[in-house]
């Protein structure tokens, strides 16, 4: 089965201009506030991790037609149904029809400040040395993969160099599939704009991504 | 163009006049463009989300009071004024600036900002010759503890698609024109590192206090799509 992310759009043409917005425009409808809060509260139960929720969002078939908060709500429903926490019939009915799953840790109001302040750090202790060093040229994996990944399509097969080492982090590809954290070294890899976009790009401009070691190949 | 959601909701309302019944789950066949809907779609989404909330409440998965705290936190406590204070401190305190550029997570935490979506911070400084621009092409990753909720444009397809390929065109959409000689570095937030741009301190701001300087620092200037306000605006 193929995996298609509808969210990986870096470098694609035809989306039009960007429309700026004032700092005070946080929500555009009351339901968006609820969508934010429901997503965060259910995320805090630990029934899935952040990488799983990103995967659920980016593979929604109608992703391109949905707004940010519609994507959040729709992916939330998908995760709830897939994990058996809520039935599709319950969402349709708007009320509980089946017993709740017991023991799910509920985010309490009094715990919100501490939970937000803690976040979900992904840095882990290094148990192996980094394979690559700052300044070293690297090529990004060219092949597509049949699961969630954080290697953007525009960088696949491109050559850049190591700009920074960011430590050892939870590997999103594995984490999103429920395969555990499988922490590995994370690097900031920088590409010249011309390597990515061709000779029309400004010669001094550059783009960087943060790439886990399994994305990288040495350049001989 | 009517949406499936609207149609189903209308049907539902016929059998459930109180209008709180939610339409069926969105299926994969539901490919209409909801952004083109009129205000009735707002009402449908409102009903839909309210119904989902009811289910989650009845099942005991959420504490309604926690939802209120979450919303209040991001509406009133966590926003770009946090980041502006970080930038202003860096402008007035060379020791803090050095710390911020070397270990942004710790330096920012010393001002009280930390946690969700800012667990691993990196600050990148604009100079006369280099301008930094932050994007997340894969979703909408953004440094929440210092900038709050991402603006709509940051989450939009035009920004996410174009920022990496045509940064000067994107900057022009914001009215920012940089000299051709300025090097532009775009940072695509593809992992859990979150970036904060330290914009250049405006010329003529020497006499301003740290608080006055913070008032010059716009949200967009900390993403790289803007520049700070001129010093006159603080007086």
Task: Explain what this protein looks like in three dimensions.
Helix content of chain A is 28%, strand content 16%. The two termini of chain A are 34 Å apart. By secondary structure, chain A is α+β, with helices and mostly antiparallel strands. Chain A has helices at 30-43, 50-58, 68-82, 88-93, 112-118, 172-176, 193-197, and strands spanning 123-124, 137-140, 159-169, 184-192, 206-212, 216-218. The longest helix of chain A is centred in the middle third of the chain and has 15 residues, at 68-82. Chain A has 2 domains: 30-118, Cyclin A, domain 1 (Orthogonal Bundle); 123-218, Roll (SH3 type barrels). The model of chain B is unreliable at 1-36 (pLDDT under 50). Chain B has helices at residues 4-15, 39-58, 64-77, 80-92, 94-102, 104-109, 144-147, 152-155, 157-162, 167-173, 210-216, 219-223, and strands at 120-125, 130-135, 183-188, 193-198. Chain B has 2 domains: 4-62, no CATH class; 79-234, Nitrile Hydratase, Chain A. The termini of chain B are far apart. With 235 residues, chain B is mainly alpha-helical. Chain B is built from 12 helices and 4 strands. Chains A and B meet through α1, α2, α3, α4 and α5 of A and α2, α3, α8, α9 and α10 of B. β5 of chain A pairs parallel with β3 (183-188) of chain B.
């Amino acid at each position: 089965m193929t995996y298609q992310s509808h969210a990986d759009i870096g470098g694609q043409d035809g989306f039009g201009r960007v429309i700026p917005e004032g700092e005070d425009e946080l929500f555009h409808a009351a339901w968006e506030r609820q969508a934010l809060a429901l997503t965060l509260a259910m995320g805090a139960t630990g029934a899935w991790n952040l990488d799983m929720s990103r995967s659920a969002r980016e593979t929604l078939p109608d992703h391109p037609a949905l707004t940010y908060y519609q994507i959040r709500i729709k992916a939330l429903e998908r995760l709830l149904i897939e994990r058996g926490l809520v039935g599709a019939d319950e969402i349709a009915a708007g009320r509980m029809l089946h017993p709740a799953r017991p023991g799910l840790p509920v985010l309490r109001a009094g715990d919100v400040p501490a939970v937000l302040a803690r976040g979900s750090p992904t840095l882990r202790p290094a148990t192996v040395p980094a394979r690559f060093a700052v300044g070293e040229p690297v090529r990004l994996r060219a092949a597509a993969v049949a699961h969630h990944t954080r290697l953007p399509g525009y960088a696949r097969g491109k050559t850049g160099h190591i700009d920074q080492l960011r430590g050892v982090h939870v590997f999103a590809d594995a984490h999103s599939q429920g395969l555990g954290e499988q922490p590995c070294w994370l690097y900031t890899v920088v590409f010249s704009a011309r390597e990515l976009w061709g000779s029309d790009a400004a010669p001094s401009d550059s783009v960087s991504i943060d790439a886990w070691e399994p994305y990288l190949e040495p350049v001989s | 163009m009517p949406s499936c959601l609207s149609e189903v909701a209308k049907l539902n309302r016929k059998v459930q006049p109180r209008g709180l019944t939610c339409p069926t789950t969105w299926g994969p066949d539901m490919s209409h463009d909801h952004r083109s809907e009129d205000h009735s779609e707002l009402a449908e989404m409102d009903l839909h989300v309210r119904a989902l909330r009811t289910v989650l409440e009845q099942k005991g998965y959420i504490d309604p009071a926690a939802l209120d705290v979450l919303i209040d936190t991001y509406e009133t406590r966590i926003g770009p004024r946090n980041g502006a204070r970080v930038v202003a401190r860096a402008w007035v305190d060379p020791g803090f600036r050095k710390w911020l550029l070397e270990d942004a997570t710790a330096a920012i935490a010393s001002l009280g900002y930390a946690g969700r979506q800012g667990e691993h911070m990196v600050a990148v400084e604009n100079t006369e010759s280099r301008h930094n621009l932050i994007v997340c092409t894969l979703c909408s990753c953004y440094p929440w503890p210092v900038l709050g909720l991402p603006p709509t444009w940051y989450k939009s397809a035009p920004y996410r698609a174009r920022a990496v390929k045509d940064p000067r065109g994107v900057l022009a959409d914001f009215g920012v024109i940089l000299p051709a000689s300025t090097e532009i570095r775009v940072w695509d937030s593809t992992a859990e590192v979150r970036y904060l741009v330290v914009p250049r301190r405006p010329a003529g701001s020497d006499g301003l206090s740290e608080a006055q300087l913070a008032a010059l620092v716009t949200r967009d200037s900390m993403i790289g799509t803007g520049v700070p306000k001129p010093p006159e605006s603080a007086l």
